Structure formats: C-alpha cells, structure tokens
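[PROTEIN RECORD]
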Amino acid sequence: MSEPLIYEAGAELAGLLRRYYGGEAALWGQIQALLAAELRARGLAAAPRHVRFRRRGDGYQVIVEDAELFGPA
C-alpha cells in the first residue's frame, strides 16, 4: 500500500473514538480490533501501519499509511 487509505469511520468506531478522546483510555484495544477487522475486510495486513484519526464534525476520518514511510522503529 503506497498511497494512504483514507475513509470515514463507521458509527461504532466513531463512538469509541469520541469516548477514547474524552478520557476512556481503556477503549484502545477495542479501537485496534475494529481497525484490524476493517483492514482485513479490505484485504490488507493489520500491521505494521501508521494510523491517524482526523475529527470531522461529529465523526472521524481514518488515515492508514505504511509504517515504513515513517522510518525505523
């Protein structure tokens, strides 16, 4: 995947992200599981990926890029 994958988060992921950014850090595992499932559904491996979330009104845009683009770990 050389180009970033950009899509709007579904209702479940957007709800979890709102709660996560509101202070519920324990939700991170659920967020990761939803992201992994979405990537699998699109035929992509879950890792290594660099993932960002951009707030869009009452939802979120998900931006997924290859981790190698960001240098060695």
User: Anything to note?
Assistant: Residues 28-41 form the longest helix (14 residues). The first strand starts at residue 5 and ends at 8. The radius of gyration is 12 Å.
